[in-house]
Write a structure and sequence with these properties.
heterodimer, A: 2 domains, two-stranded antiparallel ribbon, about 10% strand, B: alpha/beta, six-stranded mixed β-sheet, four-stranded antiparallel β-sheet, 14 strands
């Protein structure tokens, strides 16, 4: 009879009722709900900064032909825009008027050169808006000089109907690419990728801290005298993994439900996704689950060894920071792979165990990589998990009873031999 | 039919914690493992349990390497308390029972039984960290005995227990001994060892100093302690060679007798010197043996 289920159960039940776990779960849910409401809030905030009206004084220095008539024409059409022609005034007089009547600024026009004189050059929103107005007027001016009609103008700026159709040598013609669907896939992939990244760091840390805690409470001596280190390690890793999975099922479903409710949220905004997610592809979720577990088991075994190497809980973060670096590299590699999922870099990174869980997952969701590569990455991950746990159980065996000083690299090497 | 510690050596970097240590624990015996602080007792126990690997030598039980023994064969009480502070007492004990191979039902039953025995029923739903040191120690002891192991290895089991609970623990150990269990426990409290152990091993600086049956050891010390009181000339003893005064008290004088001295001769001399009120020959206490072998101040 194996003791692993008993160990897993203890790990799970003693933590799942803990304040820390419940608190992070609830906060996570609140963050997901909050982020979903972020775009409308941001919009409201940014619109509150936008200028309600623009009142310009324009002083033409008299070069012919002039921008001024077009500005005046525009002010008649555009709401919230008023232009007062002060041509012929003294500059100082004109600017005094601006200050007295609290206008948006004084525009000095000298042929093609326009200078905005303003009491507040830092008001980027307002000044950009003025620049837009001036450019618009300038476009009209040039069109008039060229003798273009309104219809001719519109056709000039008409965008091409641009489509993408993928015809790969092996798969043949897979038809036209749906741009909106691709954007949705991207948002989803990014969201799930970020979740894997967070999971590896959070639960990896939890494993390392747990090991260090056990070590410092000396319960380890009792445990090691009856339970094999490998069993002990698996008990901890599976227990924390189950906790993580539960938490993630809660979080990911919150995120997805919000997305389906039409709140694409923060990520949608980052990727310029305007439509709500129409559906969640089930296969993406399944791949997420698979790579979440593969990545977790691989990293957790290494985190467990790291926890076994320190003498006190306070030292965990020092050792763990190195491992976090690997996870970050994986995350950035995955991020780069987003732009070109079939590049050599992406293919290589999806086969290296430290980066594979994130990069291969991103590639699968975005790019339909060849099956052989997917299979290879899964096999490589499984093998790496075996090697990782074997390696770690060696360190674990001795490390958990090495009190006092943290062992040097040379000692670790000796331990591995012994 | 015994536990054999065969020539084990354990080094930590430059320090040799245990050096060519060799002793035997008979099956079913209550074995006292003695030594001053830092003698290597805990290290030896960890090697016996397979927590540490010896650099040389091996430990066998009835000829078999120790690590091939079934789960739950032994119970180990570490010197420093090792419990999960956040777990509830009941849950913790059931957990310890289960990792030592008990099924769920039996773990639950034994937990209840032992908690009652150690009068911990009222704190059974509390978290371990909320318990007093003494109660935590009792929980730890229960965790060691719960699965009814054949071999008990206890590192300083009496540490932190008040006299009442120390008595309870002694009772429990003797009961286990009565059931034929083999018990090894370390201590630096000689009186407790003397009270319940038949066999001992005394180590110092990682080396074996004394080993064997306690009575035989005492006898083989070749010395006896003589307590004598008389009304009359107390200084008569100075004439007798091989007699060494250990302590002069109002109620008696305590001497160490060399193997060559005949106690009867001393009695005869004393009777000549005055009225003998008290004459007693005692074996040296373990405490005295300990101090003699290891040196004062240990």
């Amino acid at each position: 009879m194996s003791v692993i289920p008993v160990l897993v159960k203890r790990e799970f039940t003693s933590r799942v009722k803990g304040t820390a776990y419940i608190l992070t779960t609830v906060i996570g849910v609140l963050v997901f709900v909050g982020l979903s409401f972020l775009p409308p809030i941001m919009q409201r905030i940014s619109s509150s900064f936008a200028p309600k009206s623009i009142e310009l004084a324009v002083l033409d220095h008299g070069a012919e032909p002039s921008l001024v008539p077009f500005l005046l024409e525009l002010s008649g059409e555009r709401e919230g825009l008023s232009v007062r022609d002060v041509s012929g005034w003294d500059e100082v007089e004109a600017y005094r008027l601006v200050l007295e009547e609290d206008l948006s600024g004084l525009l000095l026009v000298d042929g093609p050169l326009c200078t905005l004189v303003t009491p507040d050059s830092k008001n980027v929103v307002l000044n950009d808006e003025i620049k837009n107005v001036v450019n618009q007027a300038a476009t009209r001016w040039r069109a008039a000089e060229l003798g273009l009609t309104q219809a001719e103008m519109e056709s000039l700026f008409q965008a091409v109907d641009f489509r993408i159709r993928e015809v790969a040598p092996q798969q043949g013609d897979s038809g036209e690419v749906d741009g909106a669907a691709q954007a949705q896939a991207m948002v989803l992939a990014y969201f799930l990728l970020f979740m894997i990244y967070m999971a590896l760091i959070m639960y990896g840390n939890m494993v390392a801290t747990g090991v260090a805690e056990e070590k410092s409470s000396r319960i380890m001596e009792v445990m090691v005298s009856t339970v094999k280190p490998l069993e002990l390690m698996f008990g901890k890793i599976i227990g924390v993994g189950a906790l993580g999975l539960l938490q993630f099922v809660i979080w990911v479903s919150t995120g997805l439900i919000m997305a389906l409710l039409g709140r694409t949220g923060f990520l949608g905004m980052m990727f310029g996704l305007t439509e709500p997610l129409s559906s969640i592809p089930l296969t993406s979720i399944l791949w997420f689950g698979l790579y979440f577990l593969l990545g977790y088991f691989f990293y957790a075994s290494i985190f467990a060894a790291a926890g076994a190497l320190v003498a006190r809980v306070e030292e965990v973060s020092q050792v763990v920071s190195l491992l976090m670096m690997f996870i970050m590299v994986g995350f950035f590699a995955a991020y780069i792979s987003f732009l070109n999922p079939n590049s050599n870099l992406a293919v290589a990174a999806s086969l290296i165990p430290f980066t594979a869980p994130m990069v291969m997952f991103a590639r699968i969701v975005l790019a339909d990589p060849p099956l052989i590569q997917v299979a290879a990455s899964v096999v490589i991950m499984l093998l790496s998990i075996l090697v990782g746990t074997w390696f770690s159980s060696k360190i674990y065996r001795i490390g958990i009873l090495l009190y006092g000083k943290r062992p040097s690299l040379r000692q670790v090497a000796q331990l591995l031999k012994g | 039919m015994s536990l054999v510690v065969a020539e084990i050596t354990k080094r930590f970097r430059d320090v040799t914690a245990v050096d060519q240590l060799r002793f035997t624990v008979k099956e079913g015996s209550l074995f006292g493992f003695l030594g001053p602080n830092g003698a290597g007792k805990t290290t030896t126990m960890r090697v016996i349990l397979g927590i540490l690997k010896p650099d040389e030598g091996q430990v066998t039980w009835q000829g078999r390497p120790f690590d091939r023994l079934p789960r739950g064969f032994y119970g180990y009480l570490p010197e420093e308390r090792g419990l999960y502070p956040k777990m509830r007492v009941v849950e913790h004990l059931e957990f310890l029972g289960r990792i030592h191979g008990l099924d769920r039902m039996r773990a639950r039953r034994e937990t209840t039984r032992w908690l009652e025995r150690f009068e911990l029923g009222s704190v059974s739903r509390k978290r371990v960290e909320e318990l007093s040191k003494g109660n935590q120690q009792k929980v730890q002891v229960i965790g060691t005995m719960l699965h009814d192991p054949e071999l008990l290895i206890l590192d300083e089991p009496f540490a932190g227990l008040d006299p009442v609970n120390a008595g309870l623990l002694k009772e429990v150990l003797l009961e286990a001994h009565g059931k034929g269990k083999t018990i090894i426990f370390s201590s630096h409290r000689m009186d407790q060892v003397e009270e319940i152990c038949q066999d001992i091993a005394l180590i110092n600086l990682g080396r074996l100093v004394l080993h064997g049956n306690l009575r035989h050891i005492k006898r083989s010390m070749g010395r006896q302690i003589l307590r004598l009181n008389l009304e009359g000339n107390r200084d008569f003893w100075a004439r007798i060679p091989g007699l060494q005064l250990l302590e002069e008290r109002a109620d008696y004088l305590e001497f160490r007798l060399d193997g060559s001295v005949d106690p009867n001769l001393v009695l005869a001399e004393a009777m000549e010197a005055g009225q003998v009120i008290h004459f007693e020959l005692v074996e040296p206490s373990l405490d005295q043996i300990f101090v003699e072998k290891v040196g004062a101040g240990a």
